TrEMBL record:
<keyword id="KW-0249">Electron transport</keyword>
<feature type="region of interest" description="Disordered">
    <location>
        <begin position="193"/>
        <end position="213"/>
    </location>
</feature>
<protein>
    <submittedName>
        <fullName>Electron transfer flavoprotein subunit alpha/FixB family protein</fullName>
    </submittedName>
</protein>
<dbReference type="InterPro" id="IPR014730">
    <property type="entry name" value="ETF_a/b_N"/>
</dbReference>
<dbReference type="Pfam" id="PF00766">
    <property type="entry name" value="ETF_alpha"/>
</dbReference>
<dbReference type="InterPro" id="IPR014731">
    <property type="entry name" value="ETF_asu_C"/>
</dbReference>
<dbReference type="Pfam" id="PF01012">
    <property type="entry name" value="ETF"/>
</dbReference>
<comment type="similarity">
    <text>Belongs to the ETF alpha-subunit/FixB family.</text>
</comment>
<dbReference type="GO" id="GO:0009055">
    <property type="term" value="F:electron transfer activity"/>
</dbReference>
<dbReference type="InterPro" id="IPR029035">
    <property type="entry name" value="DHS-like_NAD/FAD-binding_dom"/>
</dbReference>
<dbReference type="GO" id="GO:0050660">
    <property type="term" value="F:flavin adenine dinucleotide binding"/>
</dbReference>
<keyword id="KW-0813">Transport</keyword>
<feature type="domain" description="Electron transfer flavoprotein alpha/beta-subunit N-terminal">
    <location>
        <begin position="52"/>
        <end position="188"/>
    </location>
</feature>
<dbReference type="InterPro" id="IPR014729">
    <property type="entry name" value="Rossmann-like_a/b/a_fold"/>
</dbReference>
<dbReference type="GO" id="GO:0033539">
    <property type="term" value="P:fatty acid beta-oxidation using acyl-CoA dehydrogenase"/>
</dbReference>
<feature type="compositionally biased region" description="Basic and acidic residues">
    <location>
        <begin position="193"/>
        <end position="204"/>
    </location>
</feature>
<feature type="domain" description="Electron transfer flavoprotein alpha subunit C-terminal">
    <location>
        <begin position="233"/>
        <end position="308"/>
    </location>
</feature>
Amino acid sequence: MRARRDPRAERARCLVPGGARPRLARAGEAVVGAGPRERAVISIEAPAFWVAVVVEAPDGRLDRWARQSVGAARVLAGAEGGVVALLAGTAGGDALGEAGADRVVPLDGGIGPDAMPEMMLAALAPFVPRHVVLAETPAGGDWARRLAARAGWPIQTGVEMLSARQAIRPVGGMRRERAAAPARVLTLPRDRVASHGGTRREGRWCPAPERPADRGRMRVGPVVTATAAGIPLAEAPFVMAAGQGVVDFERFHALSRLLGATEGASRVVCDAGLMPRAAQVGASGTVLDARCYLAFGIAGAPQHLQGLGKVEHVVAVNTDLHAAIVARAGLSIIADAQAVMPALLDLLREEG
């Protein structure tokens, strides 16, 4: 008669002690290391060629579009090339190294768009890049066209698909596609190329180029942060929304003010007149393009989830572990919103 297996005891025997997370060694004896290994970093001194990417980070953070632009440059560079990031902002080199950049050159963001191509060319001169990648943002698209005109380089705008040998973009009023070798300057819409998911690169800082002569050109002032209440819901970077599980709207409004979040709501809340119709999130309301969405007491109907298509991070506070919003969220708090809101308010007030 065969003895019964005890899976819990078998798993306990396979556990490797030490480290931040348990590891299983199912074959042979477990070898315990001295501790967690340092993360690998790829460092290159003299690549076969360089690919440049202009990274916009005015608020000190790399958003999804910026990381995808660096990822596109990494695709063009391949294993033999290096990526140099021209940073128009204040993001750290570590973040750019994780995004795939080998070198980082800071740019002065206080100059006008007419002087930016000259500064970019001065920053690119030591590298002589094979390609220059920019995001098709209002600023990036303008810089790309000015740079191409100033340097006399060919440009491909709105590239939809990209590889080291081919760039595909729509032509003829979006009715046809044209495939060609990647041009010297390329612009990318959002969500066309994946972010770099490989080993972290060095992200070594290089000297900033000299500021071009003023010559009476237009200057750009400092970025002034708008109040959360004044930002349209479709453009808000941080949205905090109320659902049927929220009863104390006085606390909800106080918390949104302290967090600096733009307020949203589910359709049920707007139909009840508890929030204005302009705050409705979903297919019949506003489709968000936020970095973070904090949902209090929202179950997550399909129409509501359609409004979160472009949101990077979703945080859900709900009593139902199996709610659809919890499945969509990257972080969930399984608790009553009425208990979580005052706790967050106390924490924020303690921090000043």
